[in-house]
Structure prediction request, 248 residues.
Amino acid sequence: MFHQINSKVYIKKDTRKLRKVIRLAGLCLSLSGLIFGIYFFFPLISWRLYLEPVFASQTFVTPIPKTTIITKEYIQSLWLNTARSMQTLYDANAQNWLPSSQYKEVQIARQLSYYFISIPKLNIQNAVVSTIDTDLSSHLINFPGTAIPPGKGNAAVFGHSTLPQLFDPKNYKTIFATVHTLVIGDTILVTANNLTYSYKIYSISVVEATDTSYLSQDTNDSYLTIITCTPPGTTWKRLIIRAKLEKI
Prediction:
């Protein structure tokens, strides 16, 4: 007598397609993270590692040392400073950019409530500069206590910068994102009371955030100083661009 034996056949499920999908998804996530990191952090790191020595070797008026020693601690400090600077990157009040212990307003008569500046090289046209408030999200500001163009003295104009790829000449939160590309000899135009004045850049410098010497007044001529945070997208230092009224 024969007994029928019930046997079960187990077929291993083919998971190769699933593993392929998982690997592909992981690769996409890794690439996305890499692109994100390059997009947002490479301009910051490259400025410190590459542009600082270049600035120091050129004819810029800057306290940046000619030699930068790259160490593990130095790299870590860059990331830490980047994270901290992101917290106050878009502070709308220009007075908060200065150390309170060093800020002292000098009383200078107000002749205009606003005027305009244009920087042809950067495609910035008729950007509003307010002389009566310090709201950087709405316009550029002529810092309280400094001269007003075209009067004699130093007009200190503050504006926001950010990552260069986010530059928009119509957006006051990004308007100065590319001013670091200006060079000595470039022109800044000021329009006040329907008259346009030409200022030529004669000095470019990078100073510490605690340095407020750019607010000092020299009344032997008419000067315009642009101040913004640098490297672009951080608040580590201040980029100072000085221009002088051209004689007709």
Remarks:
- The first helix runs from residue 16 to 57.
- The beta strands are 114-119, 124-130, 140-142, 153-158, 187-192, 195-208, 222-230, 237-245.
- The chain has two helices and eight strands.
